[in-house]
Specification:
single chain, about 210 residues, alpha/beta, seven-stranded mixed sheet, binds inosinic acid
Length: about 210
């Protein structure tokens, strides 16, 4: 649990910068943080360059991104690093999820490459999970950032289904709902997803109460 002084400095402003340029993530986080009275903005509004994500794990990259955004904007920052971990591919695409096919954020090329890599893999061995590491830094030199993680288990289907979400959603089968994550209502995705799990753990640590 954050101590009361930390909580006060953050909860007074209730303004965060998201250390990402991904509008899909922003929309999901706004849906979750908006009702708690928090404003969250993309770092691209400041026209700052992207951080160099050279960590070896999701957690390291989340810290790098959050520190960079806090330094450049002067605001508390939320750094989120996430991706898809496929068992049959020894954890790939992992931290390279957004640039699996070479170009950062080319979802359809990434999905095609994944389908190709799994072409010979039978359905019962196409297990995967989305993983999310989320870090909240009160300022760029914060020595004790809040950290939470989330994992969402599923399976990779053999052709895309659904038009919602982003990234690998059209290929990620959610057993409990009987559809891909691209076919889920956004509120349901937020409740189940790796990012939803990480954010709610972070919010719990911070002890945030909704404003009256
Ligand atoms: P990041 O912006 O460096 O965290 O990269 C995240 C990448 O992982 C995205 O570009 C997607 O390819 C993938 N990813 C993360 N979360 C999701 C999700 O909820 N649905 C689909 N793909 C995701």
């Amino acid at each position: 649990m954050a101590d009361s002084r930390e909580r006060d400095s953050l909860t007074t402003s209730r303004a965060l910068v998201l250390a990402s340029g991904n509008p899909g993530k922003l929309a999901e986080l706004r849906r979750m943080l908006g009702p708690l009275g928090w404003g969250i903005r993309l770092q691209s509004e400041w026209e700052i360059e992207e951080a160099v994500e050279d960590g070896a794990t999701f957690i390291e990259n989340a810290l790098i991104k959050a520190r960079h955004a806090a330094l450049r904007t002067g605001l508390p920052s939320l750094g989120d690093d996430s991706g898809l971990v496929v068992d049959a591919l020894q954890g790939a695409p992992g931290i390279f999820s957004s640039r699996y096919a070479g170009k950062h954020g080319n979802d359809s090329a990434n999905n095609s490459k994944l389908l190709k890599a799994l072409r010979e893999v039978p359905a019962n061995q196409r297990l995967a999970h989305f993983y999310c590491a989320m870090v909240l830094m009160k300022h760029a030199e914060d020595p004790a950032p809040l950290l939470a993680t989330g994992k969402w288990h599923g399976r990779i289907v053999d052709q895309p289904r659904g038009a919602g979400g982003f990234g690998y959603d059209p290929l990620f089968w959610v057993e409990s709902e009987g559809c891909t994550s691209a076919e889920l209502n956004p509120a349901v995705k937020n409740r189940l997803s790796h990012r939803g799990q990480a954010l709610s753990a972070l919010v719990t640590q911070l002890g945030i109460q909704s404003p009256a």
